[in-house]
Amino acid sequence: MVHFSGPSHPFTVGFDLDMTLVDSRPGIRAAYVALAAETGAVIDADLVVSRLGPPVEQEMAHWFPAALVQEMSDRYRALYPRHAVEGTFLLPGAAEAMAAVQGGGGRAMIVTAKHTPNARLHMDHLGLRPDVLIGDLWAEGKAVALREHGAGVYVGDHVGDVRAADAAGALSVSVVTGPCDEAELRAAGTSVVLPDLLAFPVWLEGHLAGRG
After folding, report:
1. What is the per-residue pLDDT across 115-162, written as a single tens digit (0 to 9) for each?
2. What is the CA 37 to chain-centroid distance, rounded?
3. Of 50, 63, 148, 210, which is the most exposed, with the fewest CB atoms less than 10 Å away?
4. Which CATH number is 2-23+88-208's, of 1.20.58.340, 3.10.560.10, 3.90.950.10, 3.40.50.1000?
5. pTM as predicted
């Protein structure tokens, strides 16, 4: 867990990372290609990046026998800094969404399934400055961190993020920039669907004013 600041704030908004704040597909694809080259395994990296969200171990189970899943997951995480950081970029509206929270006196936290040290590399490379960064959590597992930090809203792109918000008692706000479309997200129970984070500041203003 990485804390960037610690003062009391009137509200906290949580954000997922991959395909919510950043488009990590090129970098993750490169890391899987490197892993395949190193191990000789057949990995469809394009398929991998079409379904980002769950922990690496779940993806590795598609390509390696169960006995090797943890070892290959650890190796992927070791390869990640060299291959995936440079190829990842901010999605439209990401910086503005976090600025809307922090500029309004709130705290912006990132809760992601990505390995925390690798998530921190993205923060440094892209200049994102969340108040709190917590990695290695997925779906309902994220709820512990969201509750601990009093997040009233959790923003994500995956049905797993909707489950996280629900388990935390937070409002689920979804963007359709990831693998799940609006129908999937609404079926999962999200409260708000936005096309991308460019729409988030206006939504947040209305939400804080009691209009949404």
Report:
1. 999 999 999 999 999 999 999 999 999 999 999 999 999 999 999 999
2. 27
3. 210
4. 3.40.50.1000
5. 0.94
